[in-house]
Specification:
heterodimer, A: alpha/beta, Rossmann fold, five-stranded parallel β-sheet, two-stranded antiparallel sheet, B: Rossmann fold, 2 domains, five-stranded mixed β-sheet, binds thiamine diphosphate, binds magnesium ion
Chain lengths: 346, 327
């Protein structure tokens, strides 16, 4: 019988020693990042609460801890760009400018939800906002995002498709099939691996032979970079540079965002596979919102009061979203049969 | 030694028994090792049987299936877990084009004793992949078996049989009833046959056939109908493919009426196959048209709409009353 190789230690931190490249944000930009990340955080906290109250069914995957990734990347996007991700998608939707009420109504299965209350947390779309899902099948979004990029190129648009996936998804075969196609056609796609170190309860250390996910494109000649995904300025800098390349026609690029989810995989996961100390350390030392807050205060770009005021506004918005959701009616029975085939049942 | 166990615990017990009995059995899948599985079906097995025999696989279903085929071709008995049935699709190519055909292609020189376990079906308020019932996709593929236990004893006996069977078995576990009822199970390693339906209730007026979670609603309906003077025979078609049609035909020859209850969408399902078999082999025993209570031909919806999709005890009883109207 073969003996399993033992993997020890933590994933390596981004480029030891070297200071990460940081985006030079103006005061207004920094405040915008703060507000957007806080909006996602408060939305997710509310969603968690509503799940606990039985308002949200099935599964609910929170983005808490990873906010810097979407907020930093989204800041580089232009009108007409596309994004696509997996089931941990609430943050991506809010960053894309989708109304929090429509998202919350979907989570709670209401007719006013962005997918008419029939899709729930994992299956949301908003083509108006360039958001192509919301995919429950791990890694399915990777070839689809590549196909969207194909269409952008085919139509000679200057747009790109940002295709997000997780460290677990990175081990699915279709990821590599898509990489090859993207290089072959120099497609305008930015692949963003959100490496939060776990796929459900399975640590990267136990699932992944070669753990430098940013090098996964090497054999396809897709350039890659590892980024401190807890720092929105590092994300913004890396995404800006990568997107410039992708948009200029040089083909795909891969960013590995080293990030962390503060909560369990989903609301039903007690997360016993990692230590309390590890979680505590990440919250205390690497909280993306805490980092920006500190920057704002240290550089006197904002006062405690200013930030409290932002906090109040964000809270009001989330409260409104939740109230809107709860007050909305449930889908009508006939909805069961709509949108299966064109023209049928509607 | 016996203890009242849930269906889920019966699965764990069968895996544990066979890991102990046969050194060729290997259990793996996403989160299966350290974490003991999403539904905890493999809880404690890694600690007991070691990391070589019970382990976490990378998140890669096509690989899980293909790896199983290779292992099985070498005489190992891989038992993999797909976290939810809806996630098996990346693995379909290996299941259909390799697992199901190795025996035939090698003209019997190789066999493929692999099991893929997967929870399936609705009832947990999640949409699509997390809740659908696509057993018919597998029941169309010669060279594999499809087995669906409806209760704890059957989970134990059928899983043991599946692991010992020399051919690939798709073992579908109705997640809605994972913890619904408990059975006293003797941990004696006794397997059930894989080519027999179970007659769970005898009756004279109508034959009800179901499998998986819907055996519970079907038996409930039969109980309520008895109080209304209708005597229903209830058959669990647990070995969905290949199917023991003989038991069903015999029953229909006795009762003259048939209602099939399935959770899967109506069209192209196992229920249609049963209806076709009965039409072919027992048409002149039928007093009434065959009834089919099924899900709808639509995509499994989210939480609030789930019970609009799922057949209810009422729907089963209504259908039975319809066929009872023929005399
Ligand atoms: C094809 C497929 N297999 C398994 C699952 C079950 N599943 C859902 S999320 C998940 C872990 C994914 O981890 P990762 O890609 O790291 O993303 P994260 O959850 O960390 O954001 C698994 C195994 C699924 N949804 N689809
Ligand atoms: Mg992950």
């Amino acid at each position: 019988m073969a003996t399993r190789p033992q993997h020890r230690g933590r994933p390596k931190p981004a480029r030891k020693g070297a200071a990460p490249e940081l985006y030079k944000a103006s005061k207004a930009q920094l405040i915008k990042f703060y507000r957007e990340m806080l909006t996602i955080r408060r939305f997710e906290e509310k969603a968690g609460q509503m799940y606990g109250q039985g308002e949200i069914g099935g599964f609910c995957h929170l983005y808490i801890g990873q906010e810097a990734v979407v907020v930093g990347v989204q800041d580089c996007l232009l009108e007409g760009d596309s994004i696509i991700t997996g089931y941990r998608d609430h943050g991506h939707m809010l960053a894309a400018g989708i109304d929090a009420g429509a998202v919350m109504a979907e989570l709670t299965g209401r007719a006013s939800g962005i997918s008419s209350g029939k899709g729930g947390s994992m299956h949301m779309f908003s083509t108006e906002n360039g958001f192509y899902g919301g995919h429950g099948i791990v890694a399915a979004q990777v070839p689809i995002g590549t196909g969207i990029a194909f269409a952008h190129r085919y139509r000679r648009q200057d747009n790109i498709c940002v295709t997000y996936f997780g460290d677990g998804a990175a081990n699915q075969g279709q990821v590599f099939e898509a990489f090859n196609m993207a290089r072959l056609w120099d497609l305008p796609v930015l692949y963003v691996v959100e490496n939060n170190r776990y796929a459900m309860g399975t640590s990267v250390l136990r699932s992944t032979g070669s753990r430098e996910l940013w090098k996964r494109g090497d054999s396809f000649k897709i350039p890659g970079k590892q980024v401190d995904g807890m720092n929105v300025l590092a994300v913004r800098a890396a995404a800006g540079a990568a997107i410039d390349q992708v948009r200029s026609g040089k083909g795909p690029y891969l960013l590995e965002m080293q990030t962390y989810r503060f909560r369990g995989h989903s609301m039903s996961d007690p997360a016993l596979y990692r230590s309390k100390e590890e979680v505590q350390h990440m919250k205390a030392e690497h909280d993306p919102i805490g980092q920006v807050k500190k920057l704002l205060l240290d550089n006197k770009m904002a006062s405690e009061d200013d930030l409290k005021e932002i906090g109040r506004e964000v809270k009001a918005e989330i409260t409104r979203a939740a109230e809107f959701a709860i007050a909305s009616p449930e889908p009508e029975a006939g909805e069961l049969f709509t949108d299966v085939l064109a023209g049928a049942g509607s | 030694m016996s203890a009242p166990l849930t269906l889920l615990e019966a699965v764990t017990l069968a895996l544990d028994y066979e890991l102990g009995a046969d050194p060729d059995v290997v259990v793996f899948g996403e989160d299966v090792g350290k974490n003991g599985g999403v539904f905890r079906a493999t809880d404690g097995l890694q600690a007991k049987h070691g990391e070589d025999r019970v382990f976490d696989s990378p998140l890669a279903e096509a690989m899980i299936a293909g790896l199983s085929v290779g292992m099985a071709a070498q005489g190992l008995k891989p038992v993999s877990e797909i976290q939810f049935m809806g996630f098996v699709f990346p693995a379909m190519t290996q299941i259909i084009t390799a697992a199901a055909r190795i025996r035939n292609r090698t003209r019997g020189r190789l066999s493929c004793p692999m099991v893929m376990r997967m929870p399936y079906g609705g009832g947990i308020h999640a949409p699509e992949h997390h809740s659908e019932s696509t057993e018919a996709l597998f029941a169309h593929i010669p060279g594999i078996r499809v087995v669906i236990p409806s209760n704890p004893s059957r989970a134990y006996g059928l899983l043991l049989a599946a692991i010992r069977d020399p051919d690939p078995v798709i073992f579908l576990e109705p997640k809605r009833v994972y913890r619904l009822v408990k059975h006293e199970i003797e941990n004696n390693g006794e397997a059930y046959p894989l080519d027999m339906c179970f007659v769970d209730r005898e009756g004279d007026d109508v034959t009800l056939v179901s499998w998986g979670a819907y055996m519970h609603e079907t038996l409930l309906a039969a109980g309520q109908l008895a109080a209304e003077g209708v005597s229903a025979e209830v058959i669990d078609a647990a070995t969905v493919y290949p199917l023991d049609t003989e038991t069903i035909i015999e029953s229909v020859e006795k009762t003259g009426r048939l209602v099939v209850v399935q959770e899967a969408p109506r069209s192209g399902g196992v229920g249609s196959q049963i209806a076709a078999e009965v039409a072919e082999k027992a048409l002149f025993s039928l007093i009434a048209p065959v009834g089919l209570v099924a899900g709808y031909d639509t995509i499994m919806p989210y939480a609030k709409m789930e019970y609009q999709y799922l057949p209810s005890v009422e729907r089963i009883k209504d259908e039975v009353k319809k066929v009872m109207a023929y005399t």
